[in-house]
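[agent] plan:
  1. take the single chain provided in the ticket
  2. run structure prediction with default settings
  3. attach structure tokens to the ticket
  4. add a short note for the reviewer (M.T.)
[agent] executing step 1
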Amino acid sequence: MSGKLLYLVGASGSGKDSLLEGCRQRLQPSHCCFVAHRYITRALNIGGENHIHLSPDEFDMRASMGMFSMQWYSHGYSYGIGSEIDNWLAKGINVVINGSREYLQIAMHAYPNLIPVLVQVDEDTLHQRLTLRGRENEEEIVKRLNRHRQIVDSLPGNIQLIDNNSNLQEGVDTLLKLIESMAPDSVKPARSTH
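[agent] step 2 finished; step 3 output follows
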């Protein structure tokens, strides 16, 4: 018995953290799914993600002891997905993670049951969100958008899409429907025929 790994990717500013938080609040035992927290060397008060903060030394110690099933370095920070997800997947529990687009190919090789999910936002909306966030200047934002375009072009053809251009609740609903469709038959919620 093996669970599926829903691997969310999307540009910075696409709203992955908000989608995952909305999803966390509505998950039920019948979904048979957990949203994994990321371990990051970024302080808790930077960015909106509900992550577990580790100092660089703590991160390196955990990495050297095999405590991460995935890890990568991006924009000056180390990111890890804890090895607890392997236990969950082995028990048939599905797992959703906020993944790195650059790490996706490695993850797909390591997890045959991985389902890539792209959080889609059009470039104008993305540019506006990044500007409002105020973490980067215009040149850095343009670089991010160019990088995002290149990475999207290289994504696998079987990728699932979640439109997060407008109403966050609609995006959360779409993600939950995807999670429900992948719940094991023994725990799938009964659907109304009305």
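[agent] step 4 note for reviewer: The chain has a mean pLDDT of 87.
[agent] ticket updated
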